[in-house]
Amino acid sequence: MQLNRVRVLVVTLAVAGVALLSGCSGEAVGSAVDGAVNGATGGDVSLGGQLPEGWPEEIPVIDGDLGFGAANTADAGRGWVVTVTTSAADPLADATAMLEVAGFSADNAATANVGDAGVAALTNETWSVVVAGTPEGVLYTVSPAA
Questions:
Q1: Is 50 helix (H, G, I), strand (E, B) or coil?
Q2: What residue range is the signal peptide (predicted)?
Q3: 129, 141 contact by CB (below 8 A)
Protein backbone atom coordinates (compact mmCIF):
# COMPACT_ATOMS: atom_id res chain seq x y z
CA MET A 1 0.00 0.00 0.00
CA GLN A 2 2.87 2.39 0.79
CA LEU A 3 4.34 1.88 -2.70
CA ASN A 4 0.95 2.59 -4.27
CA ARG A 5 0.66 5.88 -2.31
CA VAL A 6 4.17 6.85 -3.40
CA ARG A 7 3.35 6.21 -7.07
CA VAL A 8 0.18 8.28 -6.87
CA LEU A 9 2.05 11.05 -5.07
CA VAL A 10 4.87 11.15 -7.63
CA VAL A 11 2.51 11.27 -10.61
CA THR A 12 0.29 13.83 -8.94
CA LEU A 13 3.19 16.06 -7.92
CA ALA A 14 4.56 16.00 -11.45
CA VAL A 15 1.23 16.91 -13.03
CA ALA A 16 0.34 19.46 -10.37
CA GLY A 17 3.78 21.01 -10.42
CA VAL A 18 3.45 21.76 -14.11
CA ALA A 19 -0.01 23.26 -13.56
CA LEU A 20 1.09 25.36 -10.58
CA LEU A 21 4.26 26.64 -12.17
CA SER A 22 2.85 27.37 -15.61
CA GLY A 23 -0.27 29.20 -14.43
CA CYS A 24 -2.01 27.94 -17.56
CA SER A 25 -5.71 27.30 -17.47
CA GLY A 26 -6.62 26.84 -21.12
CA GLU A 27 -8.82 24.07 -22.41
CA ALA A 28 -5.89 22.19 -23.96
CA VAL A 29 -3.96 22.18 -20.69
CA GLY A 30 -7.08 21.13 -18.81
CA SER A 31 -7.63 18.19 -21.14
CA ALA A 32 -3.99 17.15 -20.88
CA VAL A 33 -4.00 17.28 -17.08
CA ASP A 34 -7.34 15.47 -16.93
CA GLY A 35 -6.08 12.70 -19.21
CA ALA A 36 -2.73 12.36 -17.45
CA VAL A 37 -4.20 12.12 -13.96
CA ASN A 38 -7.03 9.82 -15.00
CA GLY A 39 -4.63 7.58 -16.88
CA ALA A 40 -2.14 7.45 -14.04
CA THR A 41 -4.48 7.12 -11.09
CA GLY A 42 -7.85 6.02 -12.40
CA GLY A 43 -9.36 9.03 -10.64
CA ASP A 44 -11.98 11.68 -11.30
CA VAL A 45 -10.57 15.12 -12.04
CA SER A 46 -12.14 18.54 -11.47
CA LEU A 47 -10.66 21.60 -13.10
CA GLY A 48 -13.64 23.75 -12.16
CA GLY A 49 -12.28 25.19 -8.92
CA GLN A 50 -14.11 22.75 -6.66
CA LEU A 51 -12.93 20.26 -4.09
CA PRO A 52 -13.21 16.75 -5.51
CA GLU A 53 -16.16 14.60 -4.54
CA GLY A 54 -15.82 13.07 -1.10
CA TRP A 55 -13.12 15.49 0.16
CA PRO A 56 -13.04 14.97 3.97
CA GLU A 57 -14.67 17.89 5.79
CA GLU A 58 -12.13 17.63 8.60
CA ILE A 59 -9.30 18.66 6.24
CA PRO A 60 -9.19 22.46 5.92
CA VAL A 61 -7.90 24.12 2.75
CA ILE A 62 -6.26 27.56 2.68
CA ASP A 63 -8.04 30.43 0.96
CA GLY A 64 -7.24 30.83 -2.69
CA ASP A 65 -8.15 29.60 -6.15
CA LEU A 66 -8.60 25.86 -6.50
CA GLY A 67 -6.63 24.81 -9.56
CA PHE A 68 -7.70 21.22 -9.89
CA GLY A 69 -8.84 18.40 -7.72
CA ALA A 70 -8.58 14.68 -8.27
CA ALA A 71 -10.24 11.81 -6.44
CA ASN A 72 -8.83 8.31 -6.54
CA THR A 73 -11.64 5.94 -7.44
CA ALA A 74 -9.51 2.80 -7.10
CA ASP A 75 -9.50 2.53 -3.28
CA ALA A 76 -13.21 3.18 -2.70
CA GLY A 77 -12.64 6.88 -3.43
CA ARG A 78 -10.37 7.31 -0.43
CA GLY A 79 -7.62 9.51 -1.83
CA TRP A 80 -7.60 13.09 -3.09
CA VAL A 81 -5.31 15.73 -4.54
CA VAL A 82 -6.02 19.46 -4.69
CA THR A 83 -3.96 22.46 -5.77
CA VAL A 84 -4.59 25.95 -4.41
CA THR A 85 -3.05 29.14 -5.77
CA THR A 86 -2.97 31.80 -3.07
CA SER A 87 -1.58 35.22 -2.23
CA ALA A 88 -0.68 34.12 1.32
CA ALA A 89 2.77 35.23 2.45
CA ASP A 90 3.78 31.64 3.29
CA PRO A 91 1.27 29.16 1.81
CA LEU A 92 2.92 26.04 3.23
CA ALA A 93 3.13 27.46 6.76
CA ASP A 94 -0.50 28.63 6.58
CA ALA A 95 -1.74 25.24 5.31
CA THR A 96 0.26 23.40 7.98
CA ALA A 97 -1.01 25.67 10.76
CA MET A 98 -4.64 25.16 9.67
CA LEU A 99 -4.19 21.39 9.72
CA GLU A 100 -2.61 21.49 13.19
CA VAL A 101 -5.52 23.58 14.51
CA ALA A 102 -7.84 20.93 13.02
CA GLY A 103 -6.11 18.24 15.11
CA PHE A 104 -3.41 16.97 12.74
CA SER A 105 0.11 16.27 14.00
CA ALA A 106 3.18 17.11 11.95
CA ASP A 107 5.71 14.40 11.14
CA ASN A 108 8.94 16.37 11.46
CA ALA A 109 10.93 13.55 9.84
CA ALA A 110 8.84 13.97 6.67
CA THR A 111 9.30 17.74 6.40
CA ALA A 112 11.72 19.30 3.94
CA ASN A 113 12.50 22.69 2.41
CA VAL A 114 14.53 23.40 -0.70
CA GLY A 115 14.78 27.08 -1.54
CA ASP A 116 11.26 28.50 -1.73
CA ALA A 117 9.62 25.07 -1.95
CA GLY A 118 8.78 22.72 0.89
CA VAL A 119 6.86 19.64 1.92
CA ALA A 120 5.12 18.80 5.19
CA ALA A 121 3.38 15.58 6.25
CA LEU A 122 0.62 15.60 8.87
CA THR A 123 -1.71 12.93 10.20
CA ASN A 124 -4.66 12.38 12.46
CA GLU A 125 -6.33 9.07 13.37
CA THR A 126 -8.09 8.90 10.01
CA TRP A 127 -6.07 10.79 7.39
CA SER A 128 -2.54 11.39 6.19
CA VAL A 129 -2.00 14.74 4.45
CA VAL A 130 1.10 15.72 2.51
CA VAL A 131 1.28 19.41 1.65
CA ALA A 132 3.81 20.62 -0.92
CA GLY A 133 4.18 24.39 -1.13
CA THR A 134 5.76 27.14 -3.17
CA PRO A 135 5.33 30.92 -2.83
CA GLU A 136 2.45 30.64 -5.35
CA GLY A 137 0.41 27.96 -3.61
CA VAL A 138 0.10 24.45 -2.25
CA LEU A 139 -0.68 20.92 -3.32
CA TYR A 140 -2.60 18.72 -0.87
CA THR A 141 -2.37 14.93 -1.17
CA VAL A 142 -4.76 13.07 1.14
CA SER A 143 -4.86 9.34 1.86
CA PRO A 144 -6.08 7.09 4.66
CA ALA A 145 -3.77 7.03 7.70
CA ALA A 146 -1.70 3.89 7.93
A1: coil
A2: 1-27
A3: yes
